[in-house]
User: Fold this.
Amino acid sequence: MTGPTTGTFVGMPAFPTAARTALADTQLRHNLAHATGVIRGKRAAVVGEVDNWEELRLAGAAVKERALRSLDTHLVQLEESLTARGAVVHWARDAEEANRVVVDIARAHAVDEVVKVKSMVTQEIALNEALEASGIAAWETDLAELIVQLGGDLPSHILVPAIHRNRAEIREIFRRRMGEVGRPAPDDLTDEPAVLAGAAREHLREKFLRARMAVSGANFAVADTGTLVVVESEGNGRMCLTLPEVLVSIVGIEKVVPTWAELDPLLRLLPRSSTGERMNPYTSTWTGITPGDGPQEVHVVLLDNGRTRALADETGRQALRCIRCSACLNVCPVYERTGGHAYGSVYPGPIGAILNPLLRGTGDPQTDSLPYASSLCGACFEACPVRIDIPEVLVHLRSQVVDGHREDRIPKPEAVAFRGAAWAFGDASRLDRVERLSSVAGRILRRRGRTSLGRLPGPGSAWTDARDLPAPPTESFREWWQRTDGGERP
Assistant:
């Protein structure tokens, strides 16, 4: 089902340019350092309570891997289970098809607004924008998503989309925008978290009670029972999943879990890795339609949007194990300093650096920049609850980016440098001449008191702006070998 893909706001400047802008924002860096530091501390405390955490990680990875290896079989079973329980299943190759399904359902019921459960996949396909273009308002009900929506902003974190905002900024957004789209913020609104949450609760209540249609994603989809699962912390998801008459759930095909029993390790790994909690506050499950209880019309959209492309990549397919906990973001030194917007996608941080190229393919300058947005320190792999070896995939994708430019008419400076190195190392006499020239240059620089080459001109400046390039040695290895008879003489 591989087809053209779209992604929300992918196409911003390449990561180095966007990151440079973010690094200049000291308020952003302060907000990120504080928030990720708090989450890291909570996660470390609750993970430390589990004696067999590594065994639990292995179990979670095994469940997801088993599901991916027989994905076609499990998807067919999921469709049969959902249909048997009264749900209508739609298949969508890409964002356009998925958005069209949701818009058509909304028009069929003559609704002009929907309420939404926080969903990465609906952000990925830009559902809100598609609904808005059709005259349908989509209201985010998750507190952080509400802040982003009211602020006309973009999410910058998988779990905490408004992580780049502080309390004072949120208060100002609520005061300025809530009244324009519904119940206004109270006049005595302060920046206390409980007060801000109370204002959001009152603002959203009228939308919950009025909306006739809801849209959700799903954290997991159980193939043998046809059950969809959403985990959240505020109770807004449960309101969306039970009050409206019509429920549409958009589910990435990688969310399938073969059996109900196999949810066990995943539901134990997710809350500890994401919010640093022992168990999730709200876990909602729904299986088709129950007469007289909850939505009486349930649609499930099974979305590809590049996932079969990722599945076909033997090294990269492990990224589809991701359970969207964001633990890799919270430990990443690059993310902590640049924030999520620099990645140009709803999937930021280390997982976004591999997931976006896998879903969309390499070849675009912005997407090609993402595998390099990492120091390869490995902290993301250590934190990942389903053992995605993100550094391995990053290196693999870097090789794809390089391979994609081998036939360029005008080669990149890096390619020219490596071709020069290949020419020199390809013949012993050529390498000897290069070494002799290098030794001469080294002796001249040493006589002038230089121990490094300083800032190189042209493309080389990008390297030396952040690194010291030592002056060449005054004597090559061959010269040393001849002079000392292989180390026998001083």
User: Anything to note?
Assistant: The two ends are 69 Å apart (CA to CA). Strands lie at 88-92, 113-116, 137-140, 213-216, 220-222, 227-232, 246-252, 256-257, 282-286, 297-303. The mean pLDDT is 93.
